[in-house]
Please model this.
Amino acid sequence: MFRNAMPRYEILSEDAMATLDLGWRRIVTEIGVEFLSPRALELFRQAGQKVEDDCVRFDPDFLLEQVAKAPRSFDVQARNPANTVHIGDDAMVFGSVYGPPFVREGDVRRNATMEDFRNFARLAQGFAALDSAGGVVCEPDDTPLDSRHLDMTYALQTLTDKIYMGNVVSGVNARDTLAMTEILFGGRDAIEAVPATISLINCNSPLRWDERMLESQFEYSAANQPVVLTPFLLMGAMSPVSIPASLAQQIAEALTGIALSQLIRPGAPVIFGSFLSNIDMQSGSPCFGTPESAIGLLCTGQIARRFGLPVRSGGGLTSSQMPDAQAGYESLMTMLPTFLAGINWVMHTAGWLEGGLVASVEKFVLDVQVLEMLQHEFTPLEIDEASLAFDAHDEVRHGGHFLGAAHTMERFRTCFYRPFLSSSENYERWNRGGAHDAAARAGEIARRRLAEYEPPPIDEAVREELADYVTRRRRELGD
Model:
């Protein structure tokens, strides 16, 4: 897990923050937010909020009172204690892509399969810079819809020993995830004491929390498992075209979802979520890696800190159809501000392609390379007597070179970060080696990592109990 000790990049003035504060307060009081769940509506009604049909109009101070109950930070345990993570403060936790129905490998774009899912989990296990394989790394088309969440959760639990995300398609799926997590960690008390899974609860923006997501939120928050309350905002479609208006809407949606978790279980861990970008106003297509999304990301980090909440945003996002130069620069347009903003929970770190429709094997490796380099870049520089290397200057003197200096010879193996993917060969040697570009080299690395993969050890009795649960529940679900 990476600790970002660098200063945060804050771009909003106090006047700007005050204006945004007025904006979200007006939205929740005058327009309100829809909750398509009778249970949620009843909780808000009992808490004294104005409920009319499915719409709740809030007292802003009530929302702030609820938000104040949420922890500023918390741990999420992994079955390998060395991979347990901290969410909040200066910690940054990275998970891979989430949700694509398609996979790209080389020149082939196809429907995702369960074996693709397993391979992405294996890759995530093999890269130390990633803290999690995520959740729905891709949506396997070759398994039954009603029971595939069982296979995905089982794969995450057995092929990796890192933290994983819970399924949120329905309350049933959430309960299955919790039951399997209880098996893995030794019971409900164990996971309530220290959470063991994180779940993504998306707002159906604008200003609507839908029934399926709320069913899952009830299950996870009641079990004290953290949920990421995330407004899904593409400016021009799900929010107005101006960044300030979208930020005000994002605050309104996130705070109301967070308040619900606190009514379900006071003190339940939550993460202030953000997925903020824009559409192409000519075609209507979603755009990623845009200047606007980067600005919104930086603002979101500052806003979440103001509320005292851990924050989710960022990742290696791109609209590109291939793991090409566009994919590279667009992804960096979101990954760099992810670090500058000090985002705590980073989804879509590796593998995102084509606006999130595709999980790409090559892009996965390219993104991990960028992640490692950024982690190195954001490690504070230590300046001391040894690093000033006066003896090296004294040895080399005027007009010499430092290649053979004692200081260099002592440190040359570790003095610079060495990329595992980048090529610095001269042209002739690169050409003799096949003239492979970065995407081709990434594919080779992925295939080699998968060939070398060894599953992390797991207690066989626990594995059998998990497998039996999957078999039984698949049968009960009719698959």
